[in-house]
Design a protein that fits this description.
With 376 residues, the chain is an alpha/beta fold. It has two domains: 87 residues, no CATH class; 222 residues, Alpha/Beta hydrolase fold, catalytic domain (Rossmann fold), CATH 3.40.50. It contains nine helices and 15 strands. β5 and β6 form a beta hairpin.
Length: 376
């Protein structure tokens, strides 16, 4: 029988093992719960972590490696306002020095702190959500809110995020809700719930309503932004199924209809496992069209009552681009604003820096027009 080195009663293990640089023995583990952590299995490394933490107050410090003698240590330090800075630490001389800043253009003093909020879902589950508030927020001056759901496989945790700080600097509060399917908390619900996409949308809605209870959010100025395929899907679900909750939505390379996507992927079924995996987990769209229609933003596009910005790459499957244009056309037919933004040489996200700049500039102007936020 194997010994248990460490166990977390509240979270699945969502991280990696750390091996000693010289012996290659497993001496610890690093990962994320609602924030980053390190756990050590030897007293030597526990003492080392404590000694280094004192040199970097207010920062999360991760040991990256040591020299053969164990006296010179490579570390990375970061916080919710400071991207990771790599430093060396001389334990004998008790000195330290930075040698590389991962993002030297970021001024930590101008960034906003992040907090963790617990929220209950309508079926009694409890999840974490990251909340970042702009300057000057109070119950007397509540902030407009941008809801930022992550991809289907992922987990938002305390730490520095460029997208969040960008939005906070423009005067928006930012909510990053975790939901069933998020890594780290899958033990809390039945395995089948990992594929209950509509329930994930409901989890996001429950997180938003929990944040409302703080009194720090202007309930009449809420947007939802999805910059991943699944995040984009949840953004469209938000305005299709909860149109009274949001003022507008922004998507990038969203999934518009899972049934349509699965059928599109059948053509590529010998080039990857997407078609077989999703057909097994979600079912056959041809045999159960009602199920797929019930969780499809495309099929409920006529229920959207707010402006949308739909962005996609021109190298995406042509039929998916067609679906994006169909949603835009449906929204426009109701006299609402619906904008599109396309990028050459892109598929399923943005890889080119100039494209990212263009997207965020467009998103900034779109949100400002529909939300009325101003930078503090």
């Amino acid at each position: 029988m194997l010994d248990t080195l460490w166990e977390d009663a509240a979270y699945d293990f969502n991280g990696w093992l750390y091996r000693d640089s010289v012996t290659n023995a497993v001496v610890g583990a690093m990962g994320y719960r609602n924030g980053p952590y390190s756990v050590w299995f030897t007293e030597g490394y526990r003492s080392l972590q404590k000694a280094i933490d004192k040199l970097f107050p207010g920062q999360v410090v991760r040991i990256r490696g040591t020299n053969a003698a164990g006296k010179l240590v490579l570390i990375g330090s970061f916080s919710d306002r400071q991207p990771e800075i790599y430093s060396w630490v001389d334990l004998e001389k008790k000195t330290a020095g930075a040698f590389r800043n991962s993002r030297p253009w970021i001024d930590a003093q101008r960034m906003q702190p992040m907090s963790i909020m617990k929220f209950k879902t309508r079926d009694g589950k409890s999840f974490d959500a990251c909340v970042t508030l702009p300057k000057g927020v109070s119950k007397q001056t509540p902030a407009p809110l941008v809801v930022l759901p992550h991809g289907r496989v992922g987990h938002d945790a305390w730490g520095f995020t460029e997208e969040v700080q960008f939005l906070a600097s423009r005067g928006y509060a930012v909510l990053q809700p975790n939901f069933r399917g998020s890594s780290g908390q899958r033990w809390m619900y039945p395995t089948s719930d990992e594929w209950e996409f509509f329930k994930m949308h409901e989890d996001v809605t429950d997180a938003v309503k929990t944040l409302f209870a703080t009194g720090l959010i202007d309930r009449n100025r809420v947007a939802i932004v999805g910059t991943t395929d699944f995040g984009g899907y949840l953004a469209l679900c938000g305005v299709a199924f909860e149109p009274q909750l949001y003022r507008c939505a922004v998507t990038q390379s969203a999934v518009y209809d899972w049934g349509e996507l699965i059928q599109d992927q059948e053509y590529f079924k010998y080039q990857g496992n997407f078609f077989s995996r999703y057909s097994i987990k979600l079912g056959d769209p041809k045999k159960n069209p009602e199920k797929f229609a019930a969780m499809s933003p495309l099929k409920h596009a006529r229920d959207i009552r707010v402006p949308v910005l739909v962005s996609y790459g021109e190298y995406e499957i042509s039929s998916q681009i067609g679906l994006a244009k169909e949603i835009v056309s449906t929204v426009r037919s109701k006299g609402l604003e619906a904008e599109t933004l396309s990028f050459r040489d892109e598929r399923s996200g943005l890889n080119y820096f100039d494209h990212k700049i263009e997207f965020y500039q467009k998103m900034e102007s779109f949100l400002a027009k529909n939300m009325g936020a101003t930078a503090p």
